[in-house]
From TrEMBL:
Residues 3-121 form the Response regulatory domain. Residues 148-213 form the HTH luxR-type domain. The keyword Phosphoprotein applies. Keywords: DNA-binding, Phosphoprotein, Transcription, Transcription regulation. The modification 4-aspartylphosphate is found at D54. Transmembrane segments: none annotated. PROSITE patterns: HTH_LUXR_2, RESPONSE_REGULATORY. It comes from the Bacteria. It comes from Streptomyces levis. The lineage of its organism: Bacteria, Bacillati, Actinomycetota, Actinomycetes, Kitasatosporales. The keyword Transcription applies. This is Response regulator transcription factor.
Length: 221
């Protein structure tokens, strides 16, 4: 059973999400929160699998709350998915850099929301849709921090190649076909790359690919 925590200051939004999620045989809503402080408190108490976190809330907002959750060593298994009204929201990129596993627009289709919840639990990042990749590319290109190219020295040539393919949004199966290897081999390369670079999940690996210059925004497929 996938346990989800809903964090949004609009009760109507939470009610809609709860009705959809609780109707699934493999998903249950463990709790709700109306602001960031309450969300962090309930997450520490309940340790849900997935948090659907509104990015804009009164008091402690979703971005700050996400940083507290992803920065807490006691909560390594909690996946945060940001909820936003705007597709191109600069705070979404900052949230992904802080450890969020992706983002969803609030008016997303119900089936897409369910796929997203199941995907992050399976270890995938919400990076396949073109709008997400474009958002990451846009804000990575404008990043004020220096490129982390030095970190790539820890990787083998094949791991760098795999990281670049992850960066343009390919799945493990697509990487396997591109490199003519098995999906399991591709997954192993991705996992080893994440470990070497200290990436919390696939989303952070994509960000690192852009920030290091391994992938350029114009390479989006």
């Amino acid at each position: 059973m996938i346990r989800v925590l809903l964090a949004d200051d609009q009760s109507l939004v939470r009610a809609g999400f709860r009705a959809l999620l609780d109707a699934q045989p493999d998903i249950e809503v463990a709790a709700e929160a109306a602001d960031g402080e309450e969300a962090v408190r309930r997450i520490r108490e309940l340790r849900p699998d997935v948090v659907l976190m509104d990015i804009r809330m009164p008091g402690l907002d979703g971005l700050a709350a996400t940083r507290r959750v992803t920065g807490d060593p006691a909560l390594p298994g909690v996946k945060v998915v940001m909820l936003t009204t705007f597709e191109l929201d600069e705070y979404v990129f900052e949230a992904i850099r802080s450890g969020a596993s992706g983002f969803l627009v609030k008016d997303t289709e119900p089936d897409e929301l369910l796929r997203a919840v199941r995907a992050v639990v399976a270890g995938d990042a919400l990076l396949s849709p073109g709008v997400t990749r474009r958002l990451i590319a846009e804000f990575a290109a404008r990043s004020k921090e220096p490129a982390a190219a030095g970190a790539l020295g820890r990787l083998t040539e094949r791991e760098r190649e795999v990281m670049a393919l992850v960066g343009i949004g390919l799945s493990n199966e697509e990487i396997a076909r591109r490199l003519v290897v098995s999906p399991l081999t591709a997954k192993t390369h991705v996992s080893r790359t994440m470990v070497k670079l200290g990436a919390r999940d696939r989303a952070q690996l994509v960000v690192l690919a852009y920030e290091s210059g391994l992938v350029r925004p114009g390479w989006l497929g």
